[in-house]
């Protein structure tokens, strides 16, 4: 037995390793299935998928791409938060400084921006794909509803993120967007006041949109995504061709 | 490496379902396909993680230019005189000015003369007539206040006294040395820039009554 193999074995036999990994490295079909079922992240997915489900031209990976873009947005968003202060006097300068002073700052911001555009696009395409396949039909009707909530959350994440650069286009876009809330029946004025935290777009609005953008909506979206993926398994896997 | 090293007894076999199954589950000689994929994936992910860590450190590394820790541009003598450390004292009479961005007290060595353009790498003002002192008491880091009545710096924490040029009074207070100095430059237009990344430790304390220490003008503030 070589030195590396002995080190490898002593690590695998240690109490610490075995407290983390309850089973040996999966070597046959049964233990591989167990490895998926026993993992908190993997268990959301079905252990086995039907052959048609992995055909690229059936799903075009649209849901997976949307989720991948969400992860990209979370990671780049965390990076950007290190250099951004949601203050009416500082926000715009911070954006300029991220682009000019921070190492990889321009790259990070552009990845965040493009991933955001693409996520809206792919979520939309994913919804179209599900619609044209009739994959919303029972028993998957509730997962369609979860998906509609996720579409709403995606759009709200996009909308709240739009204000954060605090430039002219952001300011007036949010002014228009929140004025649209003014046309809602019954709760028109209150909903606008709650959104803006005042009677016009200002420091309170920036802070509110920031908190919604970086904390509230991503958390809610993550919960709904977990349910969304888990329901695919519970509803019998990806729908087959008709 | 691979599955081509089959023993003679295994070679000519019809690929019946049973044989395929046994080939799937049996151990392979050398590096199996799964092992190759696993190790390549591990190496790829490892490389990616190393790049990610490197990039993250680069991203989070503070940019010191323009802030404290880098060069801070203050302005000409009018700007400096307009920001006295203690209200009621005059920069032109030898009292220090104070700038929070640079954490600096700025004081003229000879109040009868103004700024002299030049380089001041030690921060003592020998060439430029301007001494640029770090606000940090050399004892435990409090900010000494400039007292208008005795024209000394007095540290509120443990009572260290420094004269108006930052020289520590040996008998008064626990600080081990005089106030530290920042390097600074004055350009041809008379604009003072303090390099807060370049610190020269202050000299040793001077006893009361000895040359090199400016005596108190009156009663202290502490």
Keywords:
heterodimer; A: 242 residues; mainly alpha; Cytochrome Bc1 Complex, Chain C; 69% helix; globular; B: 222 residues; alpha+beta; Rieske Iron-sulfur Protein; 2 domains; three-stranded antiparallel beta sheet; 3 helices; 10 strands; elongated
Task: Give an overview of the whole structure.
The complex is a heterodimer of chains A (242) and B (222). Chain A has a single domain (60-234), classed as Cytochrome Bc1 Complex, Chain C, CATH 1.20.810. Helix content of chain A is 69%, strand content 0%. Chain A contains eleven helices and no strands. Chain B is an alpha+beta fold. Chain B has two domains: 8-60; 71-200, Rieske Iron-sulfur Protein. Chain B is built from three helices and ten strands. In chain B, strand 2 (97-99) and strand 3 form a beta hairpin. The chains are: A mainly alpha (242), B alpha+beta (222). Chains A and B meet through loops of A and helix 2 of B.
List the topology elements.
The complex is a heterodimer of chains A (242) and B (222).
Chain A: H1 3-13, H2 15-20, H3 29-37, H4 56-59, H5 62-81, H6 91-100, H7 105-132, H8 141-163, H9 168-181, H10 188-196, H11 203-234
Helix pairs in contact in A: 5-7, 6-7, 7-8, 8-9, 8-11
Chain B: H1 17-25, H2 33-60, E1 71-75, H3 77-81, E2 97-99, E3 104-108, E4 118-120, E5 130-134, E6 145-147, E7 152-154, E8 161-163, E9 181-186, E10 192-200
Antiparallel strand pairs in B: 1-10, 2-3, 3-5, 4-9, 6-7, 7-8, 9-10
């Amino acid at each position: 037995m070589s030195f590396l193999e002995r080190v490898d074995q002593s690590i695998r036999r240690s109490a610490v390793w075995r407290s983390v990994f309850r089973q040996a490295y999966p070597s046959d079909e049964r233990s591989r299935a167990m490895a998926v079922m026993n993992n908190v992240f993997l268990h959301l997915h079905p252990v086995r998928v039907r052959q048609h489900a992995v055909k690229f031209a059936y799903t075009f990976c649209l849901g997976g791409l949307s989720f991948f873009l969400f992860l990209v947005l979370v990671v780049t968003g965390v990076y950007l938060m290190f250099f951004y202060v949601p203050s009416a006097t500082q926000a715009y300068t911070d954006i300029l400084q991220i682009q000019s002073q921070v190492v990889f700052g321009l790259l990070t911001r552009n990845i965040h921006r493009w991933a955001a555009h693409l996520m809206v696009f792919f979520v939309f395409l994913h919804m179209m794909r599900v619609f044209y396949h009739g994959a919303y039909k029972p028993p998957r009707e509730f997962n369609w509803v979860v998906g509609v909530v996720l579409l709403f959350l995606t759009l709200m994440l996009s909308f709240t993120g739009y204000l954060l650069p605090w430039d002219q286009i952001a300011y007036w876009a949010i002014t228009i967007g929140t004025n649209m809330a003014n046309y809602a029946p019954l709760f028109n004025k209150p909903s606008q006041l709650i959104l803006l935290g005042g009677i016009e777009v200002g420091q309170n609005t920036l802070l509110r949109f920031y908190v919604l953008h970086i904390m509230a909506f991503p958390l809610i979206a993550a919960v709904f995504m977990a349910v969304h993926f888990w329901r695919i398994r519970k509803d019998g896997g990806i729908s087959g061709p008709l | 490496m691979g599955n081509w090293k089959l023993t003679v007894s295994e070679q000519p076999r019809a690929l019946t379902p049973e044989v395929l199954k046994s080939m799937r589950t049996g151990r392979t000689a050398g590096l199996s396909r799964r092992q190759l994929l696993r190790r390549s994936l591990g190496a790829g992910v490892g490389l990616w993680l190393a790049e990610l860590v490197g990039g993250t450190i680069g991203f989070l590394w503070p940019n010191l230019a323009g802030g404290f820790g880098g060069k801070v541009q203050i302005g000409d003598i009018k700007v400096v005189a307009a920001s006295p450390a203690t209200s009621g004292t005059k920069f032109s009479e030898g009292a220090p000015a104070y700038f929070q961005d640079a954490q600096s007290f700025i004081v003229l060595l000879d109040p009868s003369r103004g700024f002299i353009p030049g380089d001041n790498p030690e921060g003592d003002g020998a060439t430029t007539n301007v001494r640029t002192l770090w606000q940090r008491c050399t004892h435990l880091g409090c900010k000494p206040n400039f007292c208008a009545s005795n024209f000394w710096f007095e540290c509120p924490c443990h009572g260290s006294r420094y004269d108006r040029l930052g020289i520590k009074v040996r008998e008064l207070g626990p600080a081990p040395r005089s106030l530290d100095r920042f390097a600074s430059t004055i350009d041809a237009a008379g604009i003072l820039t303090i390099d807060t990344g370049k610190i020269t430790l202050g000299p040793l304390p001077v006893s009361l009554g000895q040359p090199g220490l400016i005596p108190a003008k009156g009663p202290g503030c502490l």
